[in-house]
Amino acid sequence: MRNWLALLMVVGFVAGCAHNKRVSNDYQGAVDSSVHIENHHWGDVNIYLLHDGQRTRLGTVTAASDATFTIPWRTIGSGGQLQLEAHAIALPGALDSETMSYRPGMQINWTLETNLARATLSVY
Predict the structure, then answer these.
(1) Tens digits of per-residue pLDDT, 14-40?
(2) Least trusted range by pLDDT, from 8-17, 20-29, 66-75, 115-124
């Protein structure tokens, strides 16, 4: 009887400690977003991302060219609001986009014209 009780206790202990739960470091549905900048401006333009009270530089788009930047899903905090900012390099001019609500996987197209105030923004 003691052997059975000891065996039962060992089996119960092993079964209680063993688990088959997988721990994932990635958030399900976490998809990066992209920002495509088409620059018709005469000079190079620095692009910034405004989010959660922070300003993050995405990169530079040279004059009369285009570039695509990635916004990692971890960048945007719980507020879920973001805004783009363009600063002309060595030329006067800067522009802030409208505030947008963040959705994982969103695609943003921002066309900067020679006059930055005439820029157009598309969000998909």
Answers:
(1) 666 665 555 455 555 678 999 999 999
(2) 20-29
Q: Compute CA distances 99 → 4, 9, 76, 79, 81, whole Å.
A: 69, 61, 13, 12, 7
Q: Which fold has domain 31-123?
A: Immunoglobulin-like (2.60.40)
Phi and psi, residue 5, nearest 5°: -65, -40
Query: How do the domains of the chain map onto residue ranges?
Result: 31-123
The 3-state secondary structure of the chain reads: CHHHHHHHHHHHHHHHHCCCCCCCCCCCCCCCEEEEEEECCCCCEEEEEEECCEEEEEEEECCCCEEEEEECCCCCCCCCEEEEEEEECCCCCEEECCCEECCCCCEEEEEECCCHHHCEEEEC
Please tell me the pTM assigned to this model: 0.75
36/109 Cα distance (integer angstroms): 5
